[in-house]
Amino acid sequence: MLVIVAYNPTGGRAGRRAAITALIVGALGLLACGKSGSGSGGAAKEVELLNVSYDPTRELWRDLNEKFVAAYEKESGTKVTIKQSHGGSSTQARAVIDGLEADVVTLASFLDTDAISKKGLLQPNWVDAFPSRSLPYTSTVVFVVRKGNPKAIKDWPDLVKPGVEVITPNPKTSGNGYLSFFSAWGSVVLRGGSRDDAIKYVTQLYKQVPVLDSGARGATTTFVQKKLGDVHLAWENEAHLEVREAKGELELVYPPISIRAEPHVAIVDGNVDRKNTRQVAEAYLKFAYTDEGQEIAAKHFYRPTNEAILKKHADVFPEIRLFAITEIARDFPDAHKQFIGEGGVFDTIYSPKK
Amino acid sequence: MTVETAEVRDAPRAKSAATKIRRAQQDPAWLRWSLTGLAVAVVGVLIVLPVANVFAGALAEGAAVYWKNLVDDPDTRHAIGLTLTVVPIAVTANVVFGVAAAWAIARFSFPGRTLLTALIDLPFSVSPVVAGLMFVLIFGLQGYFGAFLRRDGYAIMPYLVAALLVLLLAVAYFVFRPSHPRARRGLWKTPPLGLAFVFATVFVLLVLGQQAFEVWPANKSLKIIFATPGLVLATAFVTFPFVARELIPVMNAIGADEELAALSLGANGWQMFWHVTVPNVKWGLVYGIILCNARAMGEFGAVYVVSGHIAGETDTMPLRIEKLFQEYNMPGSFAVASVLTLLAILTLVVKRKLEDRIPQSEQGRRTGAHP
Question: Is B284 in contact with B248 (CB distance < 8 Å)?
Fold first, then answer.
């Protein structure tokens, strides 16, 4: 309006006037856009949640989301839309720290979730906010071998037999990578080996790794498509998929002992309080603990924390000794610092192949 | 020519002479053929084969599955739509900035001109990932403006919109003002101080107006990164040099003579720009837009960092391809890749068609334009 008053009396030629009119119309259009953009939302009873997760959980959460949305609408009449964001676990944690407005995070390791908590976006005792230390499901590291297991790999010591090539990603950059390292370490020290024995074992183990990929998917490609190596140290859920996809070319081997991987779930308090979504977010994560949610987890080869349902699927999840990280270190940050961090054990034992 | 006439007169001797000359001028046949073969093989293996493979992979399970992969997946549909939204905005912004920057650099000499030229090239030399991180450091929650944007981000919008409008107004005023002082009448005669006062008043009124009518929501977070604005910013940054880089040499080669002539004949700024400058640099501009567009559509690195990877919200086509690939959905990822490739091929076809239409006289001017 003001613009018109100020610029109408120029008395220029028609072309000029047309141009100026266009300018004013454009300006008013822009304002209108802003207005309409802000006007929408809030009226209808609809909630949108953002679940920031890591790469391999895509199919799992797709299933869980579908079932939860239906169940929640029936229960409360609120229509929920759940958006998913997947990527490398620590990249995702970084994004949430940098302002990605996640309502819940379902990341691969304690370290990543805790990093967000350290920035004040999660309450300090987030681990105890949900049952079973905020773990609706767990996972572990298992072996995938070629058809017929030609190198007869059954247990951790078999990996360092001469001529065996091991595929595992870089512990520095990959969750799968450091969990494999912790598993290998634990397999020695928890069977009575000394620290020196463990160092000797992992030194030999990483000598037998022909390529150290940066991530879990890269290692899978190396093992499955490029057909390198004799054994692949993989996430349990990934290993199941890998074997199923290979149609008989690969086999799964459960070592008698391995680490318990703990992909915690958490509500991002800093975001849900601002977006007013706490109630839905809590219902969402609790859904993963229901029998239905636990069955879905099992279907996607994640070990349900509900004992009864885990027993029911004993054929898929053979009972092996899963040790907690606290058995080889104080906690996850401590283990990471000791073994993987700058100047840790891994730095002293591994030298890249020239 | 002379060899041919000699051939007619004295066939056998001349023929051997001609062969000798040709032999002396050319490398031996085996060398020629092996070099040609090598070049063809390299092009075949490095370019033709992978491109063909994209389409083969996309169509591996039949045309019906291909179509289903593209149309039935809402996330893929959204990714295509998002790319087709982000790219035009980024390219438009770069055309405006590119023309302005090229104009300033080619026509005026001012302190900092060399620095500006170097800055225009900066996005070429900076890794796209660094470019993305830069935006995270500025707009991220831990960055300089992060906390403010999150708390009450829209508070900045009245100022931004008002500044943009006043800038447009000022540019329009000076561009449409008669170039000769004696031809200026009425409002065109406003002295500089008066103009500054008017612009300032308009700015203040616009800001107050927007605030009074509550055009923008209060206490709401304004999402820049991990949302579409961030994608546009990152894409525009990475593709910034293309238009300016194409225009500067063209403008330099043409010189300011015709523009000066237009001004001295009484044209105002707009008339000079539209009737003299634009026709002169048209092909450079078109070429710049095409390159900019091609690069913007394929941009991965910078966008990867600022996207947040929200399926169906901030995944552009290249990001979607990577995601499908990671999900072991080869036909799906190849299908999206084939669309991206088709768009790129389309761009090249348009470029080729346009090159055919460039008048010979301008081709020389254009040759210097490659960065």
Answer: no
* A139-261+315-349: in CATH 3.40.50.300: no
Instruction: Write down the ipTM of this complex.
Output: 0.77
- One domain, residues B102 and B212: no
Task: Say yes or no: B215 contacts chain A, CB-CB below 8 A.
Answer: yes
List chain A domain ranges: 46-135+263-289, 139-261+315-349
Residue B202 is assigned to a structural domain of this protein: yes
> In this structure, is residue B37 part of a structural domain?
no
Q: Does B354 map to a domain?
A: yes
3-state secondary structure of B230: helix
Instruction: Note the helical H segments in chain A.
Output: 2-7, 14-39, 58-76, 89-97, 110-118, 131-134, 175-189, 195-207, 216-224, 236-246, 269-275, 278-287, 291-299, 307-312, 332-335, 345-349
Residues A120-137 have pLDDT tens digits of 999 999 999 999 999 999
Fold of A46-135+263-289: D-Maltodextrin-Binding Protein; domain 2 (3.40.190)
Give the pLDDT confidence of B58-79 residue by residue, as tens digits: 888 888 989 998 889 999 999 9
| Nearest residue of B to residue A238, measured between CA atoms | B327
Chain segment A206-264, per-residue pLDDT in tens: 999 998 888 887 888 889 888 999 999 999 999 999 999 888 899 999 999 999 999 99
Q: How far apart are CA B147 and CA A101, in angstroms?
A: 13
Binary contact (B143, A119; C-beta < 8 A)? no
Q: What number of other Cβ atoms are within 10 A of residue B36's Cβ?
A: 10
Range of the domain at B181: 141-223
Predicted local distance difference test score (pLDDT) of residue A42: 40
> Do the Cβ atoms of A98 and B312 come within 8 Å?
no
B169 touches chain A (CB under 8 A): yes
Of all residues in chain B, the one with the smallest CA distance to A245 is B328
Q: What are phi and psi of B155, to 5 degrees?
A: -60, -20
Asked if B309 has any chain A CB less than 8 Å from its own CB, the reply is: yes
Chain B contact for A41 (CB, 8 A cutoff): no
CA separation for the pair A221, A211 (Å, rounded): 12
Q: Count A/B contacts: CB-CB distance under 8 Å.
A: 96
Per the CB < 8 Å rule, is B313 touching A30?
A: no
Q: Give per-residue pLDDT as tens, A322-335.
A: 999 999 998 888 99
Residues of A in contact with B270 (CB under 8 A): 19
* Number of domains into which chain B is organized: 2
Question: Is-same-fold flag (A46-135+263-289; A139-261+315-349)?
Answer: yes
The pLDDT assigned to A158 comes to: 95
